């Protein structure tokens, strides 16, 4: 049986060849894939700066946090880097239901030789620490305070983790890596857009070695992603339609930044809109069902104006009045 401590990357890959980034950096990688390695998404577009930050995490064991608005692909960015390195990856969403026991472990009753015995079952943190695994804490700023202090232990330089109930100290595997994603960098729900996020203390944030910001892609790259996800639109008329969709999304983001809107369109929403166009064969109806009905009723005329500016089609008042009810 292979000793888990002996498992390590057995090759190095070129950042220039694998990620198309102008860098001479060579990154450790595995030749073999296991069940925890994410699937490669050929349509994914890498942000060069964020990619280099994530690769620094893999190469130099830096704790990397990726922050940005929703739908920018923060978690997916880390997973897709791991996929190309064949690096096992586990993603944990720190919603309000994740408890300290989920992370650390708990005593459970199991059957041994027909008898019920109490046995300690490791949580995700000690399990991952002992393996060459990239552990991603998704929605990091939504974690409960008791959970955050568990994580703080492994953010230290040596990263040792003590299981008090077991009187056992776990030293991290040499190729254990830690990442996180957040919407607010621990500043709380200042915009009103991310309910449930917490204000994190500075000592917590200060332990992250690298904080990268992932913004929305350029119009051309965003169009390329939508067309890759919805190949039925990859023709002249479809590309014009997708270009107008992306233009609407850009206006909602500008409106959000200016305080005119309380929500915005992410790339995920554009993809849903394009997919719904294939179902309903009506861009306006698909737009209503994909985004408009999610907006505050008072803001819908503004969004309708964005649609008219990009598509050259008026959404009449009667249509607007019934949009929320249908």
From TrEMBL:
InterPro entries per record: AAA+_ATPase, ATPase_dyneun-rel_AAA, CbbQ/NirQ/NorQ/GpvN, CobS_N_dom, P-loop_NTPase
Superkingdom of origin organism:
Bacteria
The alphabetized UniProt keywords are:
Ligase
What the entry lists under SMART domains is as follows: AAA
Give GO terms: molecular function aspect only.
ATP binding; ATP hydrolysis activity; cobaltochelatase activity
A Pfam family recorded for this sequence: CobS_N
Top-level enzyme category = ligase
AAA+ ATPase domain span: 60-206
Q: What is its EC number?
A: 6.6.1.2
Q: Where are the transmembrane segments?
A: none
Protein name as it appears in the record: Cobaltochelatase
High-level lineage: Bacteria, Pseudomonadati, Pseudomonadota, Betaproteobacteria, Neisseriales
């Amino acid at each position: 049986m292979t000793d888990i401590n002996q498992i390590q990357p057995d090759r190095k890959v070129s950042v220039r060849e694998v990620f198309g980034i102008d860098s001479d950096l060579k990154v450790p990688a595995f030749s073999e894939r296991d069940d925890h390695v994410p699937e490669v998404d050929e349509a994914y577009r890498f942000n060069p700066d964020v990619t280099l930050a994530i690769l620094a995490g893999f190469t130099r064991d830096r704790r990397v946090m990726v922050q940005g608005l929703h739908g920018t692909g923060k978690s997916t960015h880390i997973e897709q880097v791991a996929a190309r390195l064949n690096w096992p990856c586990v993603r944990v969403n720190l919603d309000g239901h994740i408890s300290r026991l989920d992370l650390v472990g708990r005593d459970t009753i199991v059957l041994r030789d027909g008898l019920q015995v109490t046995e300690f079952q490791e949580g995700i943190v000690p399990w991952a620490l002992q393996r060459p695994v990239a552990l991603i804490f998704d929605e990091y700023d939504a974690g409960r305070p008791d959970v955050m202090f568990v994580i703080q232990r492994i953010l230290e330089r040596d990263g040792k983790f003590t299981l008090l109930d077991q009187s056992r100290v776990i030293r991290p595997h040499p190729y254990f890596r830690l990442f996180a994603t957040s919407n607010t960098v621990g500043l709380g729900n200042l915009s009103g857009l991310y309910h449930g996020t917490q204000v994190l203390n500075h000592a917590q944030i200060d332990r992250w070695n690298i904080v990268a910001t992932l913004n929305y892609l350029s119009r051309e790259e965003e169009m390329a992603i939508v067309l890759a996800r919805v190949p039925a639109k990859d023709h002249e008329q479809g590309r014009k339609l997708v270009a107008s969709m992306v233009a609407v999304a850009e206006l909602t983001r500008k409106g959000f930044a200016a305080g005119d809107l309380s929500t915005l369109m992410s790339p995920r929403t554009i993809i849903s809109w394009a997919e719904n166009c294939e179902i309903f064969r009506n861009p306006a109806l698909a737009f209503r069902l994909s985004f408009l009905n999610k907006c505050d009723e008072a803001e819908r005329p503004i969004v309708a104006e964005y649609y008219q500016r990009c598509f050259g089609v008026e959404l009449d008042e009667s249509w607007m009045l019934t949009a929320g009810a249908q």
